[in-house]
Amino acid sequence: MELLVALIIGVLTACGVYLVLRRRSFPVVLGLTMLSYGVNLFLFAMGRLTIGRPAVIQADAAGYADPLPQALVLTAIVISFAMTAFVIVLALKARSELDTDHVDGRGES
Amino acid sequence: MNPEIALPILIPLLGAAVSVAFWRHMALQRHLAVLATGALLAIGLVLLWEVWHGGILVMDMGVWPAPFGIALVADLLAAIMVVLAGFTGFAVTLYSLVSLDREHENFGYYPLLQLLLAGVCGAFLTGDIFNLFVWFEVMLIASFALLVLGGRRTQMEGGLKYVTLNLIASAIFLTAVGLLYGMVGTLNMADLAVKLAQVEAQGLVTVLSLLFMIAFGIKAAAFPLFFWLPASYHTPPVAISAVFAGLLTKVGVYALYRVFTLIFTHDVGYTHTLLLWGAGLTMLTGVLGAAAQFEFRRILSFHIISQIGYMLMGLALFTPLALLGGIFYIVHHIVVKTNLFLVSGVARRLQGSYELRDLGGLYRSAPGLSVLFLIPALSLAGMPPLSGFFGKFILVRAGLEAGAYAIVFVALLVGLLTLYSMLKIWAEVFWKAAPEPTSPSPAPLQGPERLLLYAPISAMAAVTVAIGLGAAWVYDVAEAAAAQLLDPALYVEAVLGRERLQ
C-alpha cells in the first residue's frame, strides 16, 4: 500500500509541475490543483498508513490511527478549494480582459 | 493566560465581519476601518509594553495546554511586528479614505484590508507551525482579492503570476509541515525546537529546513524567487501597493527569522551560509533591477527586493549584533517603504502619472511633498541621521566583526546604488521642469483631501526622523528582541513550562 500511495503522490506532483510550467492559464490552473492534491495526500500519509485502527486511543486496541493529519488535511483541502475557485475566476477574467489565455498576457508567439 | 494576545487578530477580523454585514453603508465602513486599525495600533503598543516589562507572553487557545492546543506567543519581535502592522494599517487606511475611488470601495476594500491585517498579525503571533500556514493563507486570499480589485488589464496579468507563484510556495510550505509532523509528531514550534534536537538523522532535518527556506523565500521575495513581486506590485491602486510593500514580504522575512532562530539551528554553518549567499544576491539583483526602471512604483518595487537582502543578511550572520541590525532594519524599512509608495501616489494625484518622463517640477509646485519624499528616500539609501543609516551601520559593523567582508562590500555598494536610484527619482520627478501637460491637469489638492493625503506621509516621515534621532531606544528594544531570538530556551520555557526544558 505504501508503494501505491507513494506512486500516486509522485505522479500527481509530476503532472502538477509539468502543467504549471505550461504557457496557457488553463493548464496552469489544473497543475496547481494537481499539486495541491499531491500535497494533501502526502500530508495525510504523514500520519502513517494504518488500517482498521481506532481514531482515538483505546485501552484494548493494538494501536491507533493518528487523527491529527486528517484534521490538517481537512483544513488544507478547504483552503485549496477556495484558492482554486479564486484562480479559476481570475484566469477567466484575465482571459476576457486580455483577449488571450497566455500567462504573460501576450498573444500567439 | 493573557487574552490580550488574541486581540490583534480579533479586532481586524471583527472589523471585517461587521463591514461585510454593512456592505452598502460606505460611511460606516470607513469609520469602522479607521477605528479598527487605530485600535490595532493601540493594542500593539500595549502588547509591546507588556512584553518589554514582563517577558514573553503566551496564550493557549481554548485552554488546551501546549503542545496539544494552538498557542499564541508574543515575544518582543512579534510585538514589534504587530505595532508596525498596526501603524502601517492605520496610516494606509487614512490615506485610502481620499485616494481610493468609489468603485474600489464598493467592492469591499475596507473589509479585505482588515482581513489582510488579521492574517498578518496572526502569522506574527502564532506559536504553531500549521497555524502559521493557515494565517499565511488568510493573508494571501485577502491580498489576491486586493491585488485584482477593480480588474484593470495590467492587474490581471500581474495578479495571475502573483497568485500562481504564491500558491506553489504554499504547497511547498505544506509539504514541509507534513514532513516535520511525520518526523517528530508535533506542530508546536517550541516543542519542535526541543524534539528536533533529539532526531538522529540530522541530515534529514537540514533538507527539511531548506524546504522551509524555499517556501518562505518565495514569500519574502528573496533571490532567485522574487519574480512575482516586480510583476505585480505596481499594478493595484497605490494604497494597496503601499500596504503590500510595507507588510507582505516582511511576513516571509519574519517567518524566516522565527524558524531559523528557534527551530533550525542545528547546522548553522550550512543553512545560514546559504542564506548569506541569498542575501547578497537578493540585494544586488534588486538594486540593479531598479536601475533599469523608469516608472515610480516599479523602481520602488525592485528596491523592496534589495532591502529584503539586508534583513536576510542580519539573520544569516547569526550573531547578536547582526540579528539586532536585521530587526532594526525591518522596523526602519516598513515605515520608509510604505511612505515612499504613499508619496508616489500623491505625485500621481498631482500630475496624473507614475512614469518619470511625464512627471516633473514638483519641487516648484509642491515643495512640502519634495521634503516628504526626500526624508524617506535618503533614509532608504542610508544617509545619516535618518533611520536607514543606523540600520545599515549596525549590519555593516556586524559583518566586519564576523569577518564576512564580501557581504559588507555588497551592502555598501548596494547602498550607493540605492542612492543613485533615489536621486534619479528626485531629479526626474521634483527637479526637472514640468513637462507640457498632455491631458488637462487634475484639480489642485485642498481641504480634507489634502489633510488626509499628507497626514500619514508626514507622520511616517516624522517616525523615520525619530528612529534616526532616537536610535538608542530602538537599539535597546531590538537588542532585547535579538537576545530573545538567540536564546530559544526562553521561548520554550514560556510556552511549555519549565519542567519540559530538561
Number of discrete helical segments of chain A: 3
The computed structural class of chain B is: mainly alpha
The sequence of SSEs of chain B as H and E is: HHEEHHHHHHHHHHHHHHHHHHH
- The total number of structural domains of chain A is 1
Poorly predicted tracts of residues of chain A: none
* Poorly predicted ranges of chain B: none
Using a beta-carbon cutoff below 8 angstroms, give the protein chain pair with the largest interface and the number of residues from each chain: A-B, 33 and 31 residues
Annotation field: number of helices of chain B = 21
SS-derived structural category of chain A: mainly alpha
**First-residue to last-residue Cα separation of chain A:** 45 Å
- Overall average residue pLDDT of chain A: 87
- Taken as a percent bin, the fraction of beta residues of chain B is under 5%
Comma- or semicolon-separated keywords:
heterodimer, A: 109 residues, mainly alpha, Helix Hairpins, 3 helices, 0% strand, elongated, B: 502 residues, two-stranded antiparallel sheet, 21 helices, 77% helix
Task: Summarize the SSE layout with pairings.
The complex is a heterodimer of chains A (109) and B (502).
Chain A lengths: L1 H19 L4 H21 L21 H32 L11
Chain B lengths: L6 H15 L4 H29 L2 E4 L10 E4 L1 H24 L2 H5 L2 H17 L3 H20 L4 H32 L4 H8 L5 H19 L7 H5 L5 H26 L4 H24 L4 H22 L2 H32 L10 H4 L1 H15 L5 H16 L2 H27 L15 H23 L1 H16 L1 H9 L6
Antiparallel strand pairs in B: 1-2
Architecture overview:
The complex is a heterodimer of chains A (109) and B (502). By secondary structure, chain A is mainly alpha-helical. In chain A, 66% of the residues lie in helices and 0% in strands. Chain A has 3 helices and no strands. With 502 residues, chain B is mainly α. Chain B contains 21 helices and 2 strands. Chain B has helices at residues 7-21, 26-54, 76-99, 102-106, 109-125, 129-148, 153-184, 189-196, 202-220, 228-232, 238-263, 268-291, 296-317, 320-351, 362-365, 367-381, 387-402, 405-431, 447-469, 471-486, 488-496, and strands at 57-60, 71-74. In chain B, helix 6 packs antiparallel against helix 11, helix 11 runs parallel beside helix 13 (296-317) and helix 14 (320-351) runs antiparallel to helix 17. Chain B is globular. The two termini of chain B are 23 Å apart. The model of chain B has no long low-confidence stretch (mean pLDDT 91). Classes of the chains: A mainly alpha (109), B mainly alpha (502). At the A-B interface, helix 2 and helix 3 of A face helix 6 and helix 7 of B.
